[in-house]
Known about the structure:
By secondary structure, the chain is mostly helical. It is built from 14 helices and no strands. The longest helix has 36 residues, at 104-139.
Amino acid sequence: MTGRGVTGRPPSRRRLPWRLVRRLPGLLILCGAAVLASFLASRALPGDPVMLMVDGGAADPEMVRRLREDAGLDRPLAAQFLSYALALLRGDLGQSLRYGGVPVTELVGEALPVTLGLLAGAAALALPAGLALGLAAAGGRRSWPGTALTIGSVLALSVPPLALATWLMLAGSGTAPWAVAALALPAAAIVARLTHTLVTDVLGRDFIRTAQAKGLGRAAVLMRHALPNALVPLTAGIGSVTGTILTTTAAVEAVFALPGIGRLTVQAVLARDHPVAGAAVLVFVLMQVAVSLTAELLIGLADPRLRDGGKAP
């Protein structure tokens, strides 16, 4: 048997795309909820953005009225949301109130590459380091590697992201590689603990003892048997870790003065810049959706049962 269906093609090539199609309604609902959340979050900001634009009480009332009309802030909330959603479908994120009518798409387009670069660098550092540390702790013949990993990961996760970023900024004179380290260290600790837990659980199963009885070395057992069998839950966990990296970017970008989406969000909130704040929140949510979808695709590729339309245990 070759594992091919009646058409002669592997089941994975036929059924994996259908898993994506079945996911589309849920993803559309999630994206719609993200649009609503970004709109409500921007409107929940305290203060009047128009009054901030015209220096508060020194403004002419007629000017304030016209500015409010131009920004659509005089309309009912439901009408504002409908206009916001329709504009998004056209690719229009509105204009910044803080920067005097600069298109929000321009601001987001300048900030997004900075954030994506930080995330890529942090993931490239955190994932291999976390996997290596977790495997080393799980493969140790004595308990001290696991104990050291537990203590180190607790310490890494106990430090608030803002404090960790500040310490690393002072240590590295504010250079970008230290910003990547500030994002990567907590993520590496989570990946290491997750890898250690999952691989240790697999090492206690009967087929591992059978492999050891056949004379396989510790490294071969880890890489050929333990890690592949822990790969599916590990991939799901790594997807959550990437979300953790996303939540700390605002603090890291603010400390290192990097013009990314996180810093743009903080500045927009402080300035009551509704369009920019809403767009920044939406970008973060959509990035998290993209991460979750990528993790699910990788899980489907890693587990043949999911590729063939089955379910994970």
